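Write out the bound-state structure for alpha-D-galactopyranose.
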Amino acid sequence: MKSNLLLILAAGIVGLSACTNNSNKTTTSKTDSDSVSNTVMIPDSSNFIATVNGKQTGLYVLKNKNNVQVAITNYGGRIVSILVPDKDGKIVDIALGYDKVAGYEQEGEPYFGALIGRYGNRIGKATFTLEGKTYHLPANDHGQSLHGGPKGFHAQVWDAKKVNDYTLELSRVSVDGEEGYPGNLAVKVVYTLTDDNAIKMDYTATTDKATVVNLTNHCYFNLNGEGNGDINDHILTINASKFTPVDSTLIPTGEIKAVAGTPFDFTKPTAIGDRVNADDEQLKMGKGYDHNWVLNDGSTNLKQAAKVVGPKTGITLEVLTTEPGIQFYGGNFLDGKLKDCKGGKPYQHRTGFCLETQHFPDSPNKPNFPSTTLKPGQTYKTTTLYKIGVQ
Ligand code: GLA
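---
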């Protein structure tokens, strides 16, 4: 098949890589300003060696038989780089991020590549009540709690175990009271790079007190290559005929609304930018797309949630998940002002998108949404795949 052939060709030009200092040299070639830049490297792993909160950070590179490479740091469990061949066999990095661990520690960094927890997305008024007890969380987003709080899982150093060339196991215990949440939560996330070019993320967690859990990954993608323009030309499909409208603080109103006839209808492949500036109340609330879609298959079966095509490279991303929802965030808050992004590139408005598989935002305060409560004796278990291809 064409895609396999391209991957084999790419295998010939991508260097060996591992979690070592001399592992960073991959493919470097000219930059063509008329098309897609083709200067691609895994960041130097020595830039990721640090001690943060008394714990050691590093960079771990997963590689499959097609020589697709994914670099992950245990600081925040973040995907740093995803190196894949495009339709012409050129290697492209499709993940936004930094080339030093210090980049990820900067205030205001927008969760690049991060594992998000204990509760991905927002909890209204940073408060919820569980089994009769009210919990107050640190409010870090206009009075709401966003992505587990300022010191959520994205800002923690995970214990890392590189199981083999293509598997990295990350784990940590989020202690009782961390960022306001009840219960000691033992969390494990296994990243596996499969031979069919999927980044598989298996999340498990157990608790010793009733708590709420909603884990996700916040990778920003640009399928034309990070730093190569905006994502408005990307063609998106979301397998959802409903979404959860929000108020001005991006907290769901509780309504589950049909997408038909609105700019939120991605049931058929549509360019992201086609309607992003339409005169629509919900788009105004989100400053663009920053909403949760209700997947048509709300079961815990692994199913395709979304598909994106980058027209310049032909690179495709399929998102498969066991979750009932997906947040499509179109990079509305990127404004070119972040410092020290990869290769010094400014990431301008809407130059990356996230597809965050999840339970719905503010579920702890929305009895009509699927529950995010985890009790002692239960195991939280979800799987999401980012499957990369070319067409
Ligand atoms: C999420 C949110 C957005 C924004 C980004 C980070 O996806 O939904 O509103 O906060 O994270 O900038």
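---
Residues 110-111, 146, 250, 290, 327, 329, 333, 354, 356 surround alpha-D-galactopyranose (CB under 6 Å).
Residues 2-13 form the longest helix (12 residues).
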